[in-house]
Write a structure and sequence with these properties.
This protein has 249 residues and is an alpha/beta fold. Helix content is 33%, strand content 25%. A six-stranded mixed sheet has the order 6-7-8-3-9-10, sandwiched between helices. Strands 2-1-4-5 form a four-stranded antiparallel sheet, with helices on one face.
Amino acid sequence: MSDFILETKGLTKEFKGFTAVANVDLQVQRGHIHALIGPNGAGKTTCFNLLTKFLVPTSGQIHFNGKDITPLKPAQIARMGVIRSFQISAVFPHLTVLENVRIGLQRKLGTAFHFWRSERSLNQLNDRAMALLAEVDLASFADTITVDLPYGRKRALEIATTLAMEPELMLLDEPTQGMGHEDVHRVTELIKKVSAGRSVLMVEHNMSVVSGICDWISVLQRGAVLAEGPYAEVSSNPQVMEAYMGTEA
C-alpha cells in the first residue's frame, strides 16, 4: 500500500473563467497531520469541497488509498472512510450531545431511513457513543442539549460525530476558528489525540496550531501550491512570508 493515503493530480476548479483551484498536486502521507494553509481566498475550502465531491473538478484526479475516487459522489466517498467537518457548526442543536453522536453511529444498524422504528432501537449504541464522548472529554455533557454547549465544546462534539463514522482520513475545515485561547488549546490537543491511527488533513489559519501539531504543510496562493514542507521550512520561505504579509520579505 502506498505511503500516501490521499493524492491529487492536476486538481483544477474553474468558475466561469475564474480559476479557484489551479493544477494542485497534493500528497497526504498516511498517519500524518497535514495542514492546508494560505491567505483568505487562496482556495483552501474549495479544495476541501473538491476532495469530498461537494464540488466537481473541472479537471484532474483524486486518489484515495490508490483508488481513483474522482467520479464518486460525496456519500460514496464518506463510506470509503473520508469524513469531513465544516467551518460552520454542523450539529443538531436541539438534540442532546449523546443523541448527536448516536446519529453518526446509526448507519451501522441499517435503520437510517426507518423513521417509524422505536427510539429504543438506538439504545444499543449508547455504550459506543459514551466511549466516543469520553475520547473528546464530553462524557459529562452527554445529557446536555447541544445548543447550550460552549462553542469550543460544540467543535469537540463535531469531532466525536466525525469519529463515529470511523474515518480513515479526517478532513477538518478550520477546527479552531472563532475560539478563545483556552478552547483553541483544548481542541488542538484533541486533534492530536484522535489522530492516533488515522490521517488528518486540516485547513487552519492559526499558525500556533499548525506549528504545534502538523507534520507537513501545503501553502496555497491564488488556488495553486506555493510551497510545501515542515513548518520550520515553510514559515521561513520568503514567498510564503510575502503571500501572508503582502510585502516583500
